[in-house]
Amino acid sequence: MNASLPGQVDAFLDYLGTVRQYSPHTLDGYRRDLGTFLAFCQGRDLSNASAVHAAHVRQYAAGLHRAGKQGRSIQRALSAIRSLYNFLVKQGEVQGNPANGIQAPRQQRRLPKALDADQVEQFLKSSDDSSTALRDQAMAELFYSSGLRLSELASLNLDDIDAHQGLVTVTGKGRKTRTVPVGGVALDAIAAWLRVRPELAGEPALFLSSRGQRISVRNIQDRLKRRGRATGMHQDVHPHMLRHSFATHMLESSGDLRAVQELLGHANISTTQIYTHLDFQHLAKVYDQAHPRARKRDSDED
After folding, report:
1. CA nearest neighbour of 222 among 140, 158, 144, 277
2. In the chain, is it the N or the C terminus that has fewer CB atoms within a 10 Å radius of its CB?
3. Which of 69, 135, 149, 223 is catalytic?
4. 91 near 83, Cβ under 8 Å?
């Protein structure tokens, strides 16, 4: 085998094509990723695979990150390097794999844009009193009023709503239940829907389709999208956008991260922090204003 790093990469690619019989598309991906890695190594006079150490691989990954590569792309590049070195270890060319244990930066979570208060008002405004419109109105109001997940709303039963107390009990991720408040406007919308909801023996679902069955998550998504277009929204509105708007508006008004965490049903507060675009500067500001020992008293500064 050619002992130079380019020769070692060529031998690995030949192995993938002839022995493993990878598709041309997959081989092209490996060739691109390893070609970039080769250029990095050549720029540092790393002429043989055995000359590459974990620190070099970390530098390479960091360089990809600085160049704007996303976490998924960096992870794929690291995977190609690991596969190369696993092959070279089996061939006796190197003693270990310098890419083992090195991870790409965590992929930033993509979250939907929150609607502002005026957009929410526009979306929720309705003068249609048909049974379908009343049902859709109740679903939309409940999404925004209580920050429910799509699956949580779809699984609601009639007895999950406590109109007297203004509460709804939902079953979230991991089959965990939580009880959250429901606003008066949402309760009125639910009451209007219940007045026209078909009375079906044995059907406990709060929201029904036109066929008299529990409404599906796909149907709910479609109804919200239709409603957004009918009310002149410039973007498709979906359940997660309403949940995100609820969380954002609650946090902006209250500044109470723990309360928003409970309302959303997040097990970890870090999820809520990401979800609501809360940054360190905002946390520091809240801390400075709230904690009795956050800042020196004026008398202590003299």
Report:
1. 140
2. C
3. 149
4. no
